[in-house]
Amino acid sequence: MGEGVDPTHMCQTLVHKVAQSKQLMAVTDPDILVLFENWLDELECEVAAYLQQHPQSKAEDLAANLGLSRRGADFLLAKLRRQEKS
After folding, report:
1. C-alpha radius of gyration, the chain, whole number
2. What is the CB-side half-sphere exposure of residue 73 using CA atoms within 13 A?
3. From CA 51, how far away is CA 55, in angstroms rounded?
4. Is position 2 within any domain?
5. What tens digit of pLDDT does each residue of 26-84 get?
């Protein structure tokens, strides 16, 4: 089947659809964005917990063990690294 969840692609698709469709913006409930952000936060916590147990893991390991796409794993690793340096 597919590679798994790709948060980067999911974010890009969501932003594109909202930006391109005034009609969609008119009917979109603001709570949807909150739900998406909550889901992404939970996914980040899951990745962080995995990395605590497996600190030498690479994107391929995350993808295989957490059901993510390689691109999604790369995105989350980079995001977590940026947050740690902030």
Report:
1. 15
2. 18
3. 5
4. no
5. 556 777 777 878 888 899 999 999 999 999 999 999 999 999 899 989 989 988 888 88
**Domain range spanning residue 54?**
7-85
Q: Identify any residues that bridge with 5 across adjacent strands, giving them in sequence order.
A: 68
- CB-based contacts of 75: which residues, under 8 Å, 6+ apart? 6, 7, 8
**71, 9 contact by CB (below 8 A):** yes
Q: How far apart are CA 74 and CA 65, in angstroms?
A: 14
Asked if 79 contacts 72 with a C-beta cutoff of 8 angstroms, the reply is no
Q: How many domains does the chain have?
A: 1
Q: What are the tokens at 40?
A: 């992404």
Question: Taking the model in full, what pTM does it have?
Answer: 0.62
Task: Please give the DSSP secondary-structure letter assigned to residue 68.
Answer: B
User: What's the pLDDT band for 18 if we cut at 50, 70, 90?
Assistant: low
Q: Looking at the domain assignment, is residue 70 inside a domain? A: yes
